[in-house]
Amino acid sequence: MNILEIQSSPRGESSDSISLTQSFIEACKSDNTSIVVDTLNVWHEHLPEFDYEAIGAKYKAVKHETMTAAESNAWEQIQSLIKRFQSADRIVIGTPMWNFGLPYKLKQLIDLVAQRNYLFTYDGKQYGPLLNVEKAIVVYTRGSRFLEGTPIPPSLFDHQATYLNFWLHLVGVRDLRSVIVDNAWNQDRQESEVSLAKGKATLEQLVEWFLN
After folding, report:
1. Flavodoxin-like fold domain location, by residue (predicted)?
2. Cα angle for residues 166, 170, 174 (degrees, 5° grid)
3. Which of 43, 122, 139, 148 sees the fewest Cβ atoms within 10 Å?
């Protein structure tokens, strides 16, 4: 079984999202010694800019047009990232909430790999998935939690899980579980530790489901 683990926090060993996903993966490896983990840390990985050459390559790839040397170079880098998704049997993602959304490096990765005819199809009417990933788990850590009575309606609060879950289903994840850990950076450290412990316990309960 090949697991693609995506780490989205730049905090390394201090990151709650990384700590939780690493703990989950170690539990999986204890139950299945044949697991191969491909760890993609968006801060350590060289992610090409989605710039003039990259977007030019995107359009030419769809139209089957000849690319310039610079476009071909950008496209080769994008292809190498796409292959890591295509090789995955399972996906594990850990991501903090930044300004009610995703860290920009994670969004950059998505923009690079979400290529038509590689991760999804579009025939002018409907989208279709091209990945064959049976299961995925996403750990969402948040410094606080939504409180009733604030000026922001609850429906507008979350641009993190709503977007990422949609995207994963779009490209071909068939069964997805989200583990949301609120109050990970609360002034009351005891409350934060309780939230993190609950998140870890939830992940432990999902190991059997994830592997089978």
Report:
1. 1-194
2. 95
3. 148
Residue boundaries of the structural domains of the chain: 2-211
Q: Can you give the pTM of this predicted structure?
A: 0.90
Q: Residues comprising the binding site for FMN?
A: 9, 15-17, 97-100
DSSP 117-175: TTTEEE-SS-EEE---EEEEEEEEE-SS---TTSSS-GGGT-SSHHHHHHHHHHHTEEE
Whole-Å CA distances, 207 to 25, 62, 193, 204: 9, 39, 21, 6
For the segment 92-124, what is each residue's pLDDT rounded down to a tens digit?
A: 999 998 888 899 999 999 999 999 999 999 999
The CATH homologous superfamily to which domain 2-211 belongs is Flavodoxin domain (3.40.50.360)
Which residues are documented as binding site? 9, 15-17, 97-100
DSSP H helices in the chain: 16-31, 52-63, 69-86, 104-113, 161-171, 189-211
